[in-house]
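Revision sheet: structure tokens.
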Amino acid sequence: MNRTLTISDYKQVDTSKLSDITVIYCRLSQDDGLDGDSNSIINQKNILLDVVAREKLPNPVLFVDDGFSGTNFDRPAISEALRLVENRQVSNFVVKDLSRLGRSYIKVGQLTEITFPSFDVRFIALNDGVDSNKPNETNSIFLPIKSLMDEMYAADTSKKIRAVVQAKARAGERVTVNPPYGYLKDSN
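Predicted:
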């Protein structure tokens, strides 16, 4: 890995003066308990740093949504990155895999099939083997299926968590960490 290459965070860069930006996008839906960046975000950064160095991608800028669900595209970093795409300031958009971009089949499809090509943005989903500069028939079939599976995974996980919480509530078990305002937690 090229440890000498650094990527600036979008909050610390005046993007209005940049063009030919390489968006390095990382997302994790829940914090893993660390202060600051979570382990997964750090790992995503390191993996994507290699791609930037290997492909010699220009003007890398880091966009991180840590603690945001991929089912919702109302996230600060992705919103800013897509604003730059629409302003024609982005030439490359790199993610670890499709699920990091999002878990909405429709929105991910719109971005990968319409938005990025319309604005001449190269899209790379590293672990999925997707590179819009190296198109192949497998990716044209694989991308929509993978995106649909990512959306189904999020819906399935949500349903399972809801079922566990409801079962605990019916059994009289505590389902929240903190008691309602005005109540004290029993030490038992």
